[in-house]
Amino acid sequence: MTLLDSFMTRASLAGLGVAIAAAPLGCFVVWRRMAYFGDATAHAAILGVALSLAFSISVFVGALIMALLMAGTVSALSGRGYAMDTLLGVLAHSALAFGLVAVSFLQGVRLDLMAYLFGDILAVGRSDLLVIWGGAVLVVGLLAWRWQALLTATLSPDLATASGIDPRREQMILTLALAVVVAVAIKVVGVLLIAALLIIPAAAARPFASTPERMAVIAAVIGAASALGGVQVSYLFDTPTGPTIVCIAATAFALATGLDAARSGWRENR
Amino acid sequence: MSLVDVQNLAVTLGGQRVLHGVTISLQKGEIVTIVGPNGSGKSTLLRAIIGAVSPSAGSITRAPGLSIGYVPQSLHIDPTLPLTVRRFLNLPTRISDAAAATALEEAGVAPLAQRQMADLSGGQFQRVLLARALLSRPDLLILDEATQGLDQPGSAAFYRQIADVRETRGCAVLMVSHELHVVMAASDRVICLNGHVCCEGAPEHVASAPEYRALFGTGTQGALALYRHEHGHSHDHTHDHTHDHEAAE
Q1: CA-to-CA distance for B158 and B146, rounded, in angstroms?
Q2: What is the mean pLDDT of residues B163-192?
Q3: Does B13 touch chain A (CB under 8 A)?
Q4: CB-based contact (8 Å) between B136 and chain A?
Q5: Is some CB atom of chain A closer than 8 A to the CB atom of B61?
Q6: Contact state of A159 with B75 under an 8 Å Cβ cutoff
Q7: I need a surface site. Which of A239, A261, B15, B21 has the fewest CB within 10 A?
Q8: Among the partner residues A149, A157, A211, nearest to B92 by beta-carbon distance
Q9: Is B121 in a helix, a strand, or coil?
């Protein structure tokens, strides 16, 4: 396994794993208008990081637990008469603020904070790779297994119920998948940019897709290319890797949107 | 045994009592229409029967293994979700191309298979929803204002198709509609709902019931006569009126 000795290889593989899991999940986040939900879950993870450092447990486990708690809270509170965007805005930013304050109580970790906010993909070790790819396989497997039911429930909860699908169970599966992706992506892009990795590749894929499956695959390709390109570009120009990955994905989105506008303009003028 | 048995159902949504004391049952192969003013709980009753809202009191018993085909009032497809007609028919169960082609043919929208759902006209969209609902070979077809947004000939054609479906497949149909005259003519039984069941029975019976007239007035009587000609009692006084309508069609 001499190949894995190179930090560049490990970083590329880590980015690839997260991108492939984030893309299909990101499609559901976009279709269901859960962008803020992704933010809230990701921001809660910083509190998990603080707690896991305080109690000396794995950062992955701490982040996963907090992300699950946050996602569960939001799911439970939704549909109880709160305006969803307000509620998510409150929860997302409070979680981030409490997390940052909690981290400040810990001695000696202040220097590491940037790594958790923006990721530290170049420091990914072999055990991190194992966790990232384990999580990615779990998420992709979960989505593939429930794909038809998830899609039906996304389209219309009533339609799903009439076919014997419980939309709440499908919502819980997405929540679980989201928490896992957040936990494994912290090392790669950090809590502030996880939502970007979910949403931007999916949004960039939309103009080129005619079916949900194609959109998920194209999003995965765009995400993977952004991750690999981001690692290379950040090495060349000595820029922070997580943000560079997101910049490349954002450029892909701008190109895709421009191309789509030009294409429909051409069609109308024909 | 009946397909669905609703006993003394009450539903409360957001602190508001929407339905109370509703007892109805649906038999094999019958077409039942629910009529009622806005906010009378028609859609809520349908959603309770498919299991989307839970009763606050009473019970809903579905026949074991009952397969329900549901056509919602409207279906908002988020613009970020690409979905062809063919792919939509695959939800929630994947079907063969042959089965999809037959379903679209029956619904009269065969050339649309590769079109995006978002690009369909209102009538095409409802026909595709119906085609999908029929793919699961339902014992009970439930339609919630399925002709909303269709013009008069469009909705008349839609209801003719429903009647055909019942003939050929023998499934029961439960529907909600605002178009009283068209719908009542096609029904075996009408249930007049306003939070509770005001009256129910054959269309002629309901149309002449005082509870129904209190809700809808007597204006629909003439229109009903236009579509149903088996009235036992004399209609001399409305005859000219009826012919006027026929000439106008």
Answers
A1: 9
A2: 83
A3: no
A4: yes
A5: no
A6: yes
A7: B15
A8: A149
A9: coil
Distance of CA A13 to the CA centre of its chain: 16
* Rounded-to-5 percentages of helix, strand, coil across chain B: 40, 25, 35
In this complex, do B75 and A209 lie within 8 Å of one another by their Cβ atoms?
no
What contacts B145, CB < 8 A, 6 or more positions away? B43, B73, B176, B177, B178
CB contact under 8 A, A211 and B72: no
Count CB pairs under 8 A between chains A and B: 71
What ipTM does this complex have? Answer: 0.86
> Could you tell me the CA-to-CA distances from A185 to A63, A133, A173 in Å, in that order?
10, 11, 18
Whether residue A212 and residue B78 make contact (CB cut-off 8 A), yes or no, is no
Task: List CB contacts (< 8 A) between B87 and chain A.
Answer: 211-212
Alpha helices in B52-121 (DSSP H): 85-89, 97-106
Closest approach of B86 to chain A, Cα-based (Å): 10
Min Cα distance A267 → chain B (Å) is: 16
Q: Do B75 and A155 touch (CB under 8 A)?
A: yes
Residue carrying the six token digits 């439970």:
A76
Residue B83 is nearest to which of A81, A203, A211, comparing CB atoms?
Answer: A211
Q: Do B80 and A161 touch (CB under 8 A)?
A: no
Q: Do B77 and A155 touch (CB under 8 A)?
A: yes
- For the stretch B182-237, pLDDT in tens is 666 778 899 989 999 988 888 888 878 888 878 777 655 444 443 443 434 444 44
- The sheet with strand B31-35 has its strands ordered as B68-71, B140-144, B172-176, B31-35, B189-193, B197-201
C-alpha B234: how far from chain center: 31
d(CA A12, CA B17) in angstroms, rounded, equals 58
Q: Say how many residues make up chain B.
A: 249
- Prediction pTM value: 0.86
Alpha-helix runs per DSSP H in chain A: 7-31, 35-54, 59-77, 84-105, 113-118, 126-155, 157-162, 167-189, 194-205, 212-237, 241-269
- Cβ proximity of B135 and B103 under 8 Å: yes
Please check whether residue B208 touches A, CB under 8 A: no
Task: Give the number of residues written for chain A.
Answer: 270
**Tokens (6 digits) for A59:** 């950062």
Residue B12 CA to residue B105 CA, distance in Å, equals 41
**CA dist., res. A21 & res. A16, Å (int):** 9
Q: What is the pLDDT of residues A157-209, one digit of tens each?
A: 999 999 999 998 999 999 999 999 999 998 888 888 899 999 999 999 999 99
Residue A69 — φ and ψ, nearest 5°? -60, -45
